[in-house]
Design brief:
Diaminopimelate Epimerase, Chain A, domain 1, 2 domains, 18-stranded mixed sheet, about 20% helix
Length: about 280
Amino acid sequence: MAPRMEVPIYQVDAFTDRPFSGNPAAVCLLRETAPEEWMQSVASEMNVAETAFIWPLDDGLSLRWFTPAVEVDLCGHATLASAHVLWETHRLAPDQLARFHTRSGLLTCERTNDSIELDFPAEPESQCEPPSGLAEALGVPMLYTGRNRFDFLVEVSDAAALRGLRPDIRRLAEISARGIIVTCASDTPEYDFLSRFFAPAFGIDEDPVTGSAHCCLGPFWGQRLNKTELTGYQASPRGGTIRVRMLGDRVKLIGKAVTVLKGELLGVALRSEQPTTI
């Protein structure tokens, strides 16, 4: 029988500086890669928007993200949470860059004062006709509809419409996309735009704060407002703030994180040898 091992796991609230707000992510620190079925089972057990799995490579770390239902190609808040854990547990030095090899290429994170800055690909949308059923599922007038490789983006009239949105989640799950970004201009001076994000087809009815959606929202509002630095607020029930800096085909996502839980998963070692601990 393979020896049992204890796997460190943390729960972190991302894009916030207060516990029980922002977007919760689980971060699982592995010694080596693990079977996809096991990672998906852990993500389902944790039952937060994303669970991140990281393990060491020669030139950085491998990072994969799973919702309770599927693996995803890009996730901002769980990347932020992963970097936060690595620095907080001294697995990375305070001035050391976090280098993550992912399904979306190399992503890096660095500490800047009291925040964490993520270097992500820009994911601009292109205007499109809304898919069948989207207007009925959202239940509000749509001023604009666009799409990138992940999501549909919908602009609505104002903050009242966005905050009062009560979509038909079952019908939204039938839309062929990772998720639906709903956005509008901000009604307060501290933010440039507001948003909400729904991804029921991927097991997330409403995501509290979605970093990867801001890879689309940044270019969208940057062009409209003629700004290269913006601040967005995701107006979910938990809520969270993301600062966005546009750099051509890249975006910087800037936010904070706080650890709320740490523990150990009890599992079975995948190999008899003991690889280097992360």
